[in-house]
Amino acid sequence: MADVMAEEARRASRVAQALDASVRTKALLSIADALVENESVILQENHKDLEAAKNMDIPAATLQRLKLKDGKIAQLAKGIRSLAEGEDPVGRRLRRTKVAEGLELEQVSAPLGVLLIIFEARPDALPQIASLSIRSGNGLLLKGGKEASHSNRCIHGVIVDAIERAGLPRDLIGLVTSRDEIADLLKLDKLIDLVIPRGSNQLVTHIQQNTKIPVLGHADGICHVYVDEKADPAKVSSICVDSKVDYPAACNAVECILFHRACVSSGLAGKTIADLEAAGVSVRGGTGAAGELGLPPAPSASHEYGDLTVTVEVVGSMEEAVDYIHANGSAHTDCIITEDKEAGEDFLKRVDSACVFHNASTRFSDGFRFGLGAEVGISTSRIHARGPVGVDGLLTTRWLMRGSGHVVNKDKDIDYVHETMPL
Amino acid sequence: MADVMAEEARRASRVAQALDASVRTKALLSIADALVENESVILQENHKDLEAAKNMDIPAATLQRLKLKDGKIAQLAKGIRSLAEGEDPVGRRLRRTKVAEGLELEQVSAPLGVLLIIFEARPDALPQIASLSIRSGNGLLLKGGKEASHSNRCIHGVIVDAIERAGLPRDLIGLVTSRDEIADLLKLDKLIDLVIPRGSNQLVTHIQQNTKIPVLGHADGICHVYVDEKADPAKVSSICVDSKVDYPAACNAVECILFHRACVSSGLAGKTIADLEAAGVSVRGGTGAAGELGLPPAPSASHEYGDLTVTVEVVGSMEEAVDYIHANGSAHTDCIITEDKEAGEDFLKRVDSACVFHNASTRFSDGFRFGLGAEVGISTSRIHARGPVGVDGLLTTRWLMRGSGHVVNKDKDIDYVHETMPL
How far is C-alpha B214 from the chain's CA centre? Predict the structure, then answer.
């Protein structure tokens, strides 16, 4: 069942790719209009999910995410319209080379193919993801949580009707409503090019461990802030507090603050801990700091709290901080606070993480804040896309060559020039 | 054993990345010198492999590849020196954004991490791959075929001694000589970022099917040439013959020629078949052409001969040709021959393959011919790198942000500008 949908989605993606960009743009505007027009039906279906959820054992936070709040549909439509107004990312020229006289090569962006998005609860994720997928010309399979099944079915219907009116094949976006379980979908590595899990760490980890399809995402977000001996105390306090308190459950929240030992003797470590505590943060100590600063011990050197708790550790040098981060971090986002420009640049050069910051909160690690437009996810994989990923992460490339009868013939008669041409 | 080597290689890669580019350049020049200086020892060890191979059941073609021919070492050294002279690919700025006043973001290229190269026979692959890996700052694990074990051990020793003299850690390049089998290496998906198999289709397929580590490569090369009704007969003959005859065993050799039906009635199909046969090619017919052109039947619609045999099929339109290619090709390289510019552009737009050509031999699908410098491989994967892959395929990116105490604080007090800055 899902395999047939995947094949249809690929076929539809090839149709979508060959059409003029204006058709994909029209489809996005059509979705935005249809969502607004069908708001009351969508909310009715969402209400059914909320009613059904009352009889299920669903955590309060999930219920929160399940509910489409007032103004949500209008906000979604606005986001989709702004995506429609943006530049078309498909078929963009990335590179152009004169290979030989009369023989030209170009590399252009192309849809990745077929995406599988597995998401929990949030029905508002569906239109967001579907729009990004259309913008990038991809086929899409959606597998939502059963707690949102009424909402998802309704929104999916509204969307495929809308794209069909605009001239795109409705098979481009398939909602997996059959009994196919996630395990079956994850076996379709010949048919699906990328899986994007949107949900809990457990969901992401489960998917990463159970498929050969590349996974775009991150299971952990163990971010560090290293406070150098030459840090400005005012920046230390505000960056440490913001990195934790702004949104403690986010993957880009800080989990461990490393102080240079000089900050302990200067009192900066103690003052920062007091500032964190004043902001509602519980502070725990790593094996070193627990003794030196008299803090309750952290569960481990590599722990993601996801709440208003943070580990503090003491290191003897930046070298030691970098090693600590490599050994215990998740290569997501790590930050140095220092007024020593050279130390800052050295840290930026040496820390092998997706995002490395100097004197800025780890919370900036985000597709919107980076200016990527819509965010597909944050990847801690090193392959394909790394860090906050925008619509570019849903693209691959193709090489196009134009000649006039050129042959290789053992490279005997051809004069390669390999000149870079303007795009 | 291999897991320890992988961890050491990652550590060494981080050291290499933090060093100045000139150290990596020096290491490459040091390898080139050392290979030349140690030529006689290397050839002695290669001779041992050749002697041992006589008692093994090794095909003649493998023996050919096993032997380091006269002048090979000098040629390798020359290639490595030219890589050393090229631009350093690590830490290159790819994107720069002013996020807000005083807050700047940049995306830079970075080593992928740890590569695993599994190669058969050819000992000359070792220095080539090791040099590309050093150029891109990656850690490397090498697993060679046991038939080349003396050559590999000797060359590996020469290389790690050379890089150590230049100031790089020798752990950067590990030769897996222990009893660890390929199966064990392929389980190290937490420690290895990319596998590059260099060898037979069977090796590549086996690796793709047995690991969760991303694989850069291609198992099949089922390339098509479509001869449009408006094709220039002279170009048809030369491109079809070259695409097959230039190197029939290559993955970019044509396996199936599709003729528009008009070319059958005009006699162009018959003439091309005669030209192919005159060039030594056996021509077989697809289900349509077998009857229409009286050809012996091809084994299947999707067959890679890898020798001087080709399938011919007849289609009614370009539409049908494109569908045929999508259904039976391997999305490697496909070509249209036509004087109709619009049809050519349409084909380039619609065929969903890594390389799509207009009026040029499929044999151009190659990293050197594309002007990518050294070739890492040709990828038919859609993720990360697609088509001929140069040293860029061994890189990922990192995001670096520089602020002066910037915090997010619910985005209340920050004015995002997201201005693209010059690189």
Answer: 14
